[in-house]
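Let us practice reading a record.
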Amino acid sequence: MISVVLACGAEKGPASAPALDLYRGPFFRLTRRWAESVTGRGRIFILSALHGLVRADELLAPYDVRMRPSPELVARVRGQVAALGLGGPVYFAGGAAYLAVLLPALPEVVAVSAALPAGRAGRGIGAQRGWYSRNLGRLPT
């Protein structure tokens, strides 16, 4: 079964909630909808700027931290990948800063944005939103 890692988002609910329910921004909601269309909730993970890699059902409190790739965060996520047993086909939905943390920790990850045409127009946020909307139930090729 495939796994999906979603980048967290700045907009969060007002109270502690499972990670998949905490993030409320429009891009996160769209990637969540796509993730739920290709795999089960138990195979969805969130890459959090504060917590690293967490399961969708892990209870998190709201926080305000921006993703800043660092060797320490990569090492933390690498350990979390191992502890979670994350492997097999893993797809990532999110931006470059998050990918800079996830890729060294999980080299086999497939970034959904890589399936889009190169260049700002092809891989910009608008193109990504369109891809997720049009491809519910489908994986990138």
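A brief commentary: The chain has a mean pLDDT of 91.
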